[in-house]
Every structure is written in structure tokens, then in C-alpha cells.
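QA checklist item 7 of 12: single-chain prediction sanity check.
[x] sequence parsed
[x] length recorded as 305
[x] structure emitted
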Amino acid sequence: MPDNYRKTVFVAAILAAIVGFAAINSGQARAESTLQTVLKRGELIAGVPYDAPPSSYVDPQGNVVGYAPDVARYMAKRLGVKVKFAEVTSASRVPLLRTGRIDAEFGITTPQKVRNEVVDFTYSYIWDNGVLMVRQADSAKVEDYQNADKIIGATQGNGFIDNWKLVSPNAKFKVYRDESDVVIAVKKGEVDAYLANSFNAARFAKSGGLAISPPWKASPDSIMMRQDDSKWRNWLNWALQRMWLEGTIQKLYVKWYGIEPDFRMGDNGEIQQRVHIIGQTDDPWQPLPAGFMEQLLGDKSYALQ
């Protein structure tokens, strides 16, 4: 075999090895869990809506407050990192998550098949009801709107739309970017009803001239994260279950919603066996500093960053 040929084969083999090694390293880099990313960064970037009280909103002083931000604050403290909040909307939450600009969305997003094709979810940590918001002079009977004559308003990405199609296949929709825009549309008569959750409906009804229908759909909401990241999803689920066992979820729920949670935590409402045991790997669970829980459950939890 000629020397030149041997040299060519040798060089090709070296190049192949280098390319293969680079590909492996690149794959490993891409495969790093968000859990490791958050720990290395020392900060949890939590996506939260700024206009969905009492779940998540910005108060008049500019503080991010609500049930979901407080859950994020607690989890960040257990991870031993700081928490940073980034605003998400119905339209932006999935793109922000998939591009890595947030680590998880602590909001009011309901798991469903279409979303599960691009993102993953934890156990449900909020359970809300779907209602219709209508003009006060109009009927508040749900069945009066389940036809092709009424125009139904909703926000972009609203999971209630698909559920409404199941009960009213011929329904007509008009979609808006923000919740406040839909409320204005109802008042102006641009739409006949707004597909809303009961918490937001009650808030907007205070502006006057609006009525709320009885619940027509239960809406379980979960923390949303990037797809195929089992370490991060496992940790978030463990955290939720531990929070449930120690009563933190229940206390935060009462703090923000004024009621005890009417749902159960875990697979089929059952807590995972031995979930209270802290794992040896991929399971950071730092002790809480003195006074943390008192402040978290108080009226100045926004200071816990």
C-alpha cells in the first residue's frame, strides 16, 4: 500500500475522530438539564404573567406578586439560587420558553395535547373553572352561547378555545392579544362572550356592566418547561409534592385565593412514595433561612428575591 495512501487514510481517521468527539461534546452540551443551568447560573428565571391576579400580577408599586411568583420564590430558595421574573403573555410564553429566555413558566397554563407536542408540564398546582363573561343585560346561560350565531372572544393561546369547540363545534371566535382587550370587546359588543377563568372573570366584573356564567369547564394549570428535560421536570414535581406534604401549597393558596385547594397533588392525586427523601444526585433541597416562611406567607413576599 503506497505511503501517500496510508497518510490519507490516517488523516481521514483523525478528522473523523475529531468530528465525532466534537459531536459528542455538542450533544452533551445541548443535553444539559435546565436544573444544572439554573444551579450554575445561580438564578432561576421564572416566566410569569403580569396581569392575572391573584395568580400572578404586578402591583401598583411595580412588585411581582401572586400565588405563582410565591411558588417560584420558594423553589428558588430550595435550589439555593436567586429568582428573576420575566413577563410572559399567552402569545409569548411558549417561544420564550423554547428559546431558553425563561427556565419555566409559573403561570396559568393548562396542559393539553397541542402544547405537549412542544413543551412539558408538571403536576397541576392551580385548579380553576372556565366561565363566560358577558354583558350584564345578556343571558348568563352557557347553552345560549353554544351556537354559530354568537361570537366568542378569547386571548391568543387560550386553552378554553379547543374545549369550547367540543361543546360548540360551529362556534365563531375572535382572538385578542391581551385579556383587557377581550373585556373591552365584550363591553363594546364586538364579541358576545369572553372565555375566561373564574378568577380573572371576577376581577374584570368589578369594572361594572358584566356578568359571569356558571362554570362550564374545570381548568387545571401547571408549571411549563422545555420538552425532554426529565431531570428538571422531576425536580419541579418533587418540589410541588414536598410543598404539599408540608402544607406550603395549601397556605399559599389560601393566602392568594382565599380558599383551600379543591384538588389533590401527584399522579392521580397520589403523592409519590418516598418523595420526602432527598436524593443523592440531581435533587438540591437547601434549608430555608430563619423567617423565610413567615415573610413568604406575609404581605411582603415580593421582597424575597
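[x] summary fact logged: The two ends are 69 Å apart (CA to CA).
[ ] second reviewer sign-off
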